[in-house]
Amino acid sequence: MGPSTGMPCRELVELVTACLDGALLAGERARCDEHLRTCAGCRAYRAQMEALVGGLGELHREQEEDRAEKAWLLHLFRTRGHHNRAPRKRTVPLGVADELAAPGDHIGYFWEHEQELDATADFLAAGLERGEACVLLGHDAANARVRAGLERRGLAPDAFHRLNRLHTVSGQQPADAVLRDLGDRIRTAVADGVPMVRILGHLGWERPGWPAEREILSLEARVTDAVRNLPSVVLCAYDVRRLSGRQLLQGGLECHPLTLRHTSLRHNEHHVPTRPFLERLSADA
Amino acid sequence: MTDAATDSDDASVVRALRRGDEGAFARLVDQHHASLRRVARLYISNRAVADEVVQDTWLGVIQGIWAFEGRSSLKTWIYRILVNRAKTRAAREARTTPFARLDAELEAEEVAVAPDRFRPADHPTEPGHWADPPPELRASPERRLLAREAREHLQSAIEALPEHQRLVLILRDVEGCSTEEVCNALGFQETNTRVLLHRARARVRAALEPYLEGA
After folding, report:
1. Is residue B98 part of a domain?
2. Which of B69, B92, B115 is the last residue of a domain?
């Protein structure tokens, strides 16, 4: 039947997949070819495998046509794509106060009480539970508090760090660098197939190591445009007990198209679009 | 990972999607929807839930297209979104059985062909050679495989595969992905992917042997 020397058939059948894939080293390939030349049983085995792979490929052609489904997907494309300038449909659970957000949202959250501060961890927890990625962009004290909050909710921050689902981006750098880092995080997450990226800002106004107020204001103004077309929701927390009137007014109110206060998310009439805001900021200097 | 032609095709599809070109989106759906649905069902047995995951995947494509930079091919990216969501959803669905661990599946020894089909290693003239070789194939075995009865056997042989073998076989042989695309979509190493594919094909071949021989 087979040749009495060289590679046994038992060994050849284990190399057939690599052989059909062209993944054998030249030496192995030559031994296989040599064996196949003289062994009808192995040639038949290889032919069966080729026929099987061919048959499996044909299964693909048996498509279930589903026109209703396709029409629905086209509707989603038409209405949810960022080329559509109409208001976005709000479908992303914010995790805070039962509100829904839309991809591309930049929300100013005004908080006063400790439990309202803790609710910022709920914002991230809702994302982690949905398979999203999260970014902490905050001063150390706030980040530590949010991490503790996640831990209490059974979402170990270290584990999510290791899974590349929770990141820290430093705010202690110029606005350009922060925006670049955030963009990188979002694009990397998206490339990995992550559905959405939540960014939580507890910006370090007047904290050591953080940029000057103007730089933080410039960052806040530019984030809105930077994330508009991206699958990302940004929530910036404003501590109304501690921040200055100017920080609350210009940073909190004028830089966020949406605001969250107590339990309601609202469109913000005081929002100033990025360009006029930045022009005024440089004129004020 | 892809040749230049695919890269530039992808780039033009991405531009069209960002412009809101519905024809481009419809073509993408035609190319991948049925495949995505089959792959989703590998993770989630409830068909309605699996279909929701596929719809979520398309939404991910629609919303993520501005952040897509072509680090992988468009096709690989779409599968990654699907696999990610399917896993998250499967973990949440109480009715879904959890996936076995990949290393556990790989550790088990498996041979492509039952050992008793070969002569023993100490056989005087033909050690390790066929004792009971497969017969010569007759014409067009693929067609016979796809006849109704054989097709049902083929489907059930695929369904009987261990989970990771099934995933790799479906993506690679049924959906026609390259080994590299399968590795990227599932996050497996190339060697593991090859082992899984080899074992899956061997099992399905063994189950379908009567049809392949055309007896």
Report:
1. no
2. B92
Interface test mutation site (partner A, options B19, B27, B57, B62, max chain A beta carbons within 10 A): B62
What pTM value is reported for the model? 0.73
DSSP symbols for B39-86? HHHHH-S-HHHHHHHHHHHHHHHHHHGGG---SS-HHHHHHHHHHHHH
Give just the sign of the alpha carbon dihedral A220, A225, A228, A230: negative
Kindly provide the ipTM of the predicted complex, given to two decimals: 0.74
Find tokens 């039962």 and name the residue. Answer: A98
> What is the number of domains present in chain B?
2
Cβ contact, residue pair B80, A191, below 8 Å? yes
CB-nearest to A10 from B62, B84, B128 is B128
* Residues B116, B137 within the same domain: yes
Contact between chains at B136 and A45 (C-beta distance less than 8 A): no
| Residue B63 at interface with chain A, using a CB cutoff of 8 Å | yes
Instruction: Tell me the residue range of the domain where B64 lies.
Output: 4-92
Are B133 and A44 in contact (CB < 8 Å)? yes
Closest CA in chain B for residue A129? B88
Contact criterion met (CB below 8 Å) for B214 and B137: yes
pLDDT tens, N- to C-terminus, chain B (215 residues):
444 556 678 999 999 999 999 999 999 999 999 889 888 888 887 888 888 899 999 999 999 999 998 888 999 999 999 998 988 888 776 544 556 677 878 888 888 899 889 999 888 888 889 998 888 777 677 777 777 777 888 888 988 898 889 989 999 998 888 898 899 888 899 999 999 999 999 999 999 888 877 54
